[in-house]
Amino acid sequence: MTPDADRLPFFVYGTLRPGEPNHDVHLRGSVAAETPARLVGAVLYEGPGYPYLVEDPEGGPVRGELIAALPSAYERLLAELDVLEDYAPGDPRNLYERVVREVTLLDGTAARAWVYVAAPRVAARLRASGAVIGGGDWASFRAPR
């Protein structure tokens, strides 16, 4: 069981955002609050139907939401999101790594959150030949043009 001090909110920037396909599947009934937020020091890259967040000190902001889980749903949600994001602690085959980063809410307040970032081998491939999502906003990128 995760200690309460480690029950950080999640910063979501892709298919878990409101209106995106994984939001209702994984977050419906499990969320206490959703707040628009930004993450600096990162860039979004196109993936196969979802984005990858790659850390880059010069990048950002990446737009997303800070998701606070209901206490009763936290453990289940954490495990479910780890599976969705193809993350297992220490596994070199991970597509993503779950890390703690500081995000900024629209009012300027800073908050620590879990963020799924591209695993090192994935990030290296994307930096070499990936397509950057301009503006750091998956929802705008996916909107009909």
Summarize it.
The chain has 145 residues and is an alpha+beta fold. It contains four helices and seven strands, in the order βαββββαββαα.
Give your account of this protein's structure.
Residues 10-139 form the Gamma-glutamylcyclotransferase AIG2-like domain. InterPro entries: AIG2-like_dom (IPR009288), GGCT-like (IPR013024), GGCT-like_sf (IPR036568). There is one protein chain. By secondary structure, this protein is of the alpha+beta class. It has a single domain (4-142), classed as Gamma-glutamyl cyclotransferase-like (Hypothetical upf0131 protein ytfp), CATH 3.10.490. The protein has helices at 21-27, 74-84, 120-129, 138-142; strands at 10-12, 31-39, 42-46, 51-55, 62-69, 96-105, 110-118. The strands form 2 sheets. A 5-stranded antiparallel beta sheet has the order 1-5-2-6-7. Strands 3-4 form a two-stranded antiparallel ribbon. The model has no long low-confidence stretch (mean pLDDT 92).
